[in-house]
Structures are given as C-alpha cells and as structure tokens.
Amino acid sequence: MLMKILVADDHPIFRNGLKTLIKDKLQKTEILEADHGLEAWDLVQKHNPDMVILDIDMPYLNGIEVCAKIHEEYPAIGVIILTMFKEEEMLRKAFTEGALGYVLKDHSINEIIEAIETVKKRKKYIGPSLNEFIPSLNQVNNKLKEFEEKLGLLTSSELKTLKLVRDNYSSKQIADLLFVSPKTVENYRSRICKKLEIEPANNSLLKWVLEHRDQLDKFNL
Questions:
Q1: One digit per residue, pLDDT tens: the chain, 221 residues?
Q2: d(Cα 179, Cα 105) in Å, to the nearest integer?
Q3: DSSP secondary-structure letter at 198?
Q4: Are strands 3-8 and 101-104 parallel, antiparallel or unpaired?
Q5: Domains defined for the chain, CATH in brackets
Q6: Predicted TM-score of the model (pTM)
C-alpha cells in the first residue's frame, strides 16, 4: 500500500536528500514537499498524508505550530520532528503538541527510516542521542495523564464553570451565563477545588487556573 509522506523543510538541498533517502529505502512512498510551515499546513489539508516530517525552524509557521494544528484537526497523521534542536524543552514541547517522533538532523540518515517505521505503528520514537531526556519526558507525560484523570471527575456544569473562571468571569457573570444562582456557582467552584485537590483559599481556583493555563489548553478547555 502506498504511503504518503510530507517533508517540510526550508533548505531544499537537505529536503531533496531526505526525499531521495526515503524513496530509496521505502519503495512504496509518495513524497510531498513544502519549504515553509504555511505551505506544509496547506498540503496537509489538501492531501491528508499518512505522515509529516517537520523541521522546527521554518518561515510563517514553525514546525511545532504546524504539529499542534495537525494534532488538533488530523490526529491520525503521524508527525516526526526532524531538527537541529537538542534541548529538552523543545523535545518536551514537540511531544506535548502531538509529535510521535523526534530525530536530530545530525543523525537523520541513520534514524529517519527507523523513525518512520516506528511512527507508522503509532508508537513514539526518540533518537538514541536523546535518551537522556526520556525519564524527564515520561514524568511530564505521567503528570499530564494525572491532570486529564482529574478533569474527568468534573461534571459538565463544573467544566463549564472552570472554563469561565479561566476566562476571568465572576461568579455572578457565570451564574447569568449558566442560568443558575450565584450560590450554585459557588457550590460548583467548591466541588471543583475538592476534585482537583486545590487548597481552599481566597481566589484559589482562579490562581490554580492561571498556573495551569497551558495544560488546560491541551484539553481544549
């Protein structure tokens, strides 16, 4: 079966070399090419490839931004980040935004085919030279999983309340929007704090929401 792979990199010589390598090692492939992030996103929408290989440092939209958009709208597409960035924070950001693979360009010849084969099975691939970061990445993933489990304890009304607190609405405004009494909203807030294990204090829920805004955004809250 033909596998459709989009390669996005703003260096044409590197992109052409990667294309040649993939077609040489994986016979049944169709390669699409993009030289910047906006073009990559456009091709994703037009062709819905099986896999996308993204450089991070690209014009218009960087690779992480394109990865996030793919993860949100086309979650079945496997994304591999192919980059010069070896920093743990960038690695963590890539996987948080939905990447399944992360390969350094310095090692791409040896690793990219293995990465493609691994991601094709919906498994994560991290280049061996980045193994030192795996324990930290696993710790972050475990925290996100725990965070998701706690959000799963909230009722629909409590989730709506939490979202409105995040958007800085007062209890009275939330009550008006949800067509309930301010007292009911206070009950919602109290139950949210209990389920999320937030210490009761003045504006404790608002403070918690502001501290966890990035995590909440990951769950479209």
A1: 789 999 999 999 999 999 999 998 988 899 999 999 999 999 999 999 999 999 999 999 999 999 999 998 999 999 999 988 877 788 888 888 889 999 988 877 778 999 999 999 999 998 877 776 666 666 666 676 777 788 889 999 999 999 999 888 999 999 999 999 999 999 999 999 999 888 877 788 888 888 887 777 766 55
A2: 55
A3: P
A4: unpaired
A5: 3-133 (3.40.50.2300), 152-218 (1.10.10.10)
A6: 0.67
